[in-house]
Amino acid sequence: MSDEAPVGFRLWPPVAVGLPLVVGWLVTLLADDPVSLGSWRVPVGWVLVAFFAGWNGWALWLFHRHSTGLLPGRPTYSMIESGPYRLSRNPLYLGLLVLHAGLALLAPSFWALVLLPVAALLLLWGAILPEERFLRAKFGATYDDYTRRVRRWV
After folding, report:
1. Which pLDDT score is estimated for 3?
2. Is pLDDT of 131 > 70?
3. How far apart are CA 134 and CA 153, in angstroms?
4. What does pLDDT average to over the chain?
5. In this prediction, what percent of the chain has a pLDDT beyond 90?
6. Is the dihedral of CA 72, 98, 144, 124 positive or negative?
7. For the chain, first and last CA: distance in Å?
8. Rounded CA separation 131/141 (Å)
9. Can you give the pTM of this predicted structure?
10. Which of 1, 103, 119, 125 has the fewest Cβ atoms within 10 Å of its own Cβ atom?
11. Residue 77 near residue 67, CB atoms below 8 Å
């Protein structure tokens, strides 16, 4: 496999997470929510958004530090196994799901929260499985060893 070959995503990760979030918001706007999420949702929502910013910022900083491509179409030069990558093979995707939950709470949209598992499944199908095939082909046994040590999510 060429160093320049990109991951062949089926669905770009922000779309995989954003689409169920937007659909949930639209259902809330058109049909309302069946339950009130209560006032607890605001501080919890902000904590989740802050967690996303710190967690994903850390992961993105590691991409920069290792001089490897982050965006689709950019070459991948190294496999990162430090920082949040010690806890999750997909910290950026995990962070996007945390952001989805935080924004759904802040909106508020019960339906956007209900659709969070759909976002996770779309990420798995659209980005994670193709990325895992790509990394296994590029890094071989090193990636296989990493998958035995670190879980896909947490």
Report:
1. 52
2. yes
3. 18
4. 92
5. 82
6. negative
7. 29
8. 16
9. 0.93
10. 1
11. yes
